[in-house]
Structure formats: C-alpha cells, structure tokens
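Appendix B. One record, verbatim.
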Amino acid sequence: MILINNILESEMYLNDIQAVIFDLDDTLYSEKSYVRSGFKKIAEFFEKPSMEDELWNVFIKGGKPIDEILKLEGLLDFKEKSLEIYRFQVPDIKLYYGVPELIKRIQKEKRVGIITDGRPEGQYAKIRALGLNVDELIITDELGGIEFRKPNEMAFRLMKMKMDVPYEKMVYIGDNIKKDFIAPKKLGMRSIWFKNPDGLY
C-alpha cells in the first residue's frame, strides 16, 4: 500500500494502472462540509441560524447532534423531518483543490470509477453537487443493503466486471484505513491510502 498526504500525489503512482477507483467521502471532498451543509439546511428550516453551530458543536464532540439539539429546543417532534432535510439536501460541497483536473488527466488514458458507501439518495446528491463524471459508479447500499458496504468484496468484484480490467491493473484510492483496503488487498488490487488530515476517520 502506498501512503499519500495529498490526493494529487496519487497521480505519481498510476503509470502501469488501467483503472483508477476512488472512494468518495473524505477522498475527493471534505465530508465535514457535507455534514455542515446539512446542519445549515436544518437551521434554515427552523429559522434559527444559531442552530447550525449548535448542531456542529455536538457533532465534533462525538454526540448525536439532531437528537440532542432538538431535545434541548423542545423540537423532538420534528426529528423525522430534520433527518429527511439532512438526507435529501442539495449539499453545498466542493471537490478538493485540483481534483477536477486530476480526474480529467487520468481519464485521458485510464478508466475512472467510484465505489462509495452510504444511502443512495445522499451519495447521488453529492455526486451531482460535485459535478463528478466518471466511467462507473457503485454505491454499495444499492447492491442489497448496508451489509454490502466496505469491506465487503462485492462492489470491487462488480467494478472489475464492468471495467473488464485485471485486478492487478486496478488501484483503489481511499482514506479509511479500517475498511477501504481490505477487499482490494484480498483481490490483488493495488491500494493508495490518502491519509487525510481533514478527514472524519
């Protein structure tokens, strides 16, 4: 496994690779910005701008922001509505610096895909907001539920079939050392760990 500290460094290690598969959250953009965007949408719904910071402060301390702040405000009846706002938001997020150009350069010579965990509605909203255009996209939850999230191998096997590239000519680039690279290693793919100082994991 190769370790990098900036996602743009990944390009140095792709010479004999035919397919580059990226993780999404905290690999191509900051997941914190998605969380913050969702809190802002909830605060706008309640017309309480200060609620965004209140939710965020609970989040960074490892609490349950929506539960705790709605309870504090006497608004627990609106929990389902708040979750809906968060999950179906049009997020205010941006790709990391240089990522759009990086993907375009890679696509001139290689196939590019994304394998990402998460609720499909949220992941599709992120893809649209980020303007991502890749050859293949797999959202693991769509394969049959959360049991297909990484480190499950199914998404990687499916990506190999879709791209018709040998495992040894594929690389997975992700940020989460606990789950992102278990399946690629088993299957003989290469791995690049983006040790993201901004990442949630």
